[in-house]
Design brief:
The protein has helices at 21-31, 36-39, 51-54, 56-64, and strands at 12-18, 68-76, 85-98, 101-111, 117-128. By secondary structure, it is of the alpha+beta class. It has a five-stranded antiparallel beta sheet. Pfam families: MaoC_dehydratas.
Length: 136
Amino acid sequence: MEISHPPEEGDEYTVERTFDHEDVREFGDISGDRQPIHTEPDEAGRLTVQGLLTATLPTKIGGDLNYIARGMEFEFVEPVYTGERIRCTVRLESVTERDGYYDVGSAAVCENEDGEDVMRAEIDGLIPKDAIPADE
């Protein structure tokens, strides 16, 4: 996914991912977050996914859009478990054109397979104009 036109209010981008045990263990190694809920499976054999690992879903979209975040605020609503498909949608809420870039405010919502919100985020940042392909 890449941005193919100047960003506009209302643009939406979606990504889905299922985290596995290896993802949780590797993120624990990198972040140091090795709480028992992330290292010891529950009765169903699942690990709880670190909140900041879940937060990589909107950052994946941001990376695809060359969106340089300046501020991020997360609300972790429900736990995410390994083996659970998570869908994240980022919606551009405000776009202001500036010299050389677009000032962008966005909202992200991540949902589990049951359609329940598991994480919400507000993200402010910018998209450089030179990151958007010129019309041909």
